[in-house]
Amino acid sequence: MDGARTSDTSFERIWEVEEPNRGVEKGNLGLVLKSKAKHAAISKRLDKPFIFDDKPLIVQYEVIFQDNQICGGAYLKLLSVDPKHKDLRDFHDKTPYTIMFGPDKCGNDQKLHFIFRHKNPLNGSFEEKHAKKPKERLEEIFQDKQPHLYTLIVKPDNTFVIKVDDNVVNEGSLLDDFTPPVNPPLEIEDPEDKRPKDWDDREKIPDPTAVKPDDWDEDAPAQIVDEDNEAPDGWLENEPPFIPDPNSVKPEDWDEDTDGEWEPSKIENPKCKDAPGCGPYQKKLISNPQYKGKWLPPLINNPNYQGKWKPRLIHNPNYYNDQQPFKMTPIYAVGFELWSMSPDMLFDNIIVTDDELVAKTWAEDTFEIRKQRISRESETWWGKMRRMMNYKPGWWFAYLIYCSIPVCIYICFLISRAREPEDTKESQNDDEAEAEAEALIQKEKDADLEKDEEATEKDKAEETIEELEDKEESETEEIIPDEQGESSGKAEGPRRRKPNKE
Q1: 111 near 133, Cβ under 8 Å?
Q2: What is the pLDDT of residues 81-104, one digit of tens each?
Q3: What is the pLDDT of residues 285-294, one digit of tens each?
Q4: Does domain 9-187+322-381 have CATH number 1.10.10.10?
Q5: Which of 37, 120, 339, 418 is buried most deeply by CB count within 10 Å?
Q6: Could you tell me where the beta strands, DSSP code E, fall in 313-444?
């Protein structure tokens, strides 16, 4: 396709021609939309314009949502022949088209568009006609990342068929299965017709002869107290459900003039924990058998009923009867004018023809071969691994390498320790033995020192005891007289301790 740029820079250089991410076919290239959340437009002129005459129109192309599809379209526009829009470099969202066909999704709303612009034969204006929704579910084609083939066949007998992967998902008539319909109604409601003021469309009315019974009490309550209802056994009627918290303390900054009288916070009464309830017992309410509510008279058929009013029908001034909607505006080019939240949408094998056999053969030589190769590749071990890795093996390998870095570092450390020289290990062992010997010697020295200190302290204690005994003897000794009763300055006999006086 020839790239079509506009003055809007958001349309520039966001298309690439490259292989699918899931490259099962080397050298098989496709048109890839690389942008995300940007408008993109690209178009290609047909070899010759297609004129809607007596041959069918077949539009067929492949789409691969390689990164799923969150929100955006992948539809193809068949551009109308228009003298004002000949230059494809000005292709944009306002460029007139004849048919828009293809998938579209946003959130949970999945669509397969078939829209054609019908020309009003009376005034020449155009109006979009939307095909009914397919009955088939379309979620899978936006999520499985597989190539899918979309085919539209519009026939001169005003019928259409839409296929996905050669399976019919929608079909019908251009005259009957589009909204709004191709032809307007013959009659329409008169917009100037007004409903008469005396028109009575009430089918039922209150009986004017009905009288309220004398015993009808409109003021009776709907519910009354059940007097037979008694408190359950164990109900503590004299115990309050909540009591003041004994641990609650009045704040120091509490000002009764401004804050009011302080009250401790409440806690649940612990006596009520195992009881069915506490406090005054409230009897249950029951339906009041005397309750009747507001009295209303019964309804009867309205004798003046005139039915539902509708404005009268008049001839539609815009009525026309186009029995050949197939004869649309000729087309001269095809193009993608898209916006998507998912990049890397791939388009391939686009064909516009008037021969169904040509389209079918083209699909067999391209799409079917690709599907077969993908199927065979999926059955291999590597194919199953790629499917488990969501067809992004590069990211998984990078993650594996990232996680293996600390493991490799630890293994290298162990290997380096294992490869250290033996003499280094022996010297380390000798150093360790020498250190142990020194520690043992130091321990013995410390033990001897402790013994010497204990002996010294013991000797000091004995000397202290002897000094105390000598002092006591010196205080109590006295001279003993000799046999003649004479005393001398010195005692000639042995000294004796004077007995203590008690």
Answers
A1: yes
A2: 999 998 999 999 999 999 999 999
A3: 999 998 989 9
A4: no
A5: 339
A6: 313-315, 331-339, 345-353
